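Hey, resending since the last one bounced:
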Amino acid sequence: MADVLVNAGLGTLLIDLLTRDEETIDLQTAELRFDIRLLAERLGSVTDWLSGEPSAATLSVGYFGASTGAAAALIAASDRPERVRAIVSRGGRPDLAGPVLPRVRQPTLLIVGGDDDVVIELNRQALRELSGIKQMMIVPGATHLFEEPGALEQVAALASEWFLRYLGKTP
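The structure tokens again:
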């Protein structure tokens, strides 16, 4: 994913929102991945840090979130409407952002696998609640993790197009 975005002229950061110790706990309990407020606060902290970095302070910021990370991205973006300019969700759970959805003003693209029926419906419901520019794209034949041949390439192409449209290229 990052290679496609970089080749399109976009800068990227890969951020683990849980520490290694937390990931170990989460593998056993699955509780921390659903602590959306914690994940959103951590993503927001990284964004705030990035804003203070002279080499990145003027760059446009977009969030790409998968699964519960998509809900965290929506919440963190709603808290930073001037800084975050676009959002892409892949197989995300935007429904977990709940009451924040109407406050999200950034252009938001929801990408869902065509064979992920439950998540398709959750994304449709969230799409109705989002404000501003919004779109949902379904990748035919893809499941929740987009492990099918060519599925992630389709996601990367859609994400690149969305970010280029709403962020522009990184100088």
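The mean pLDDT is 94.

Sorry for the duplicate.
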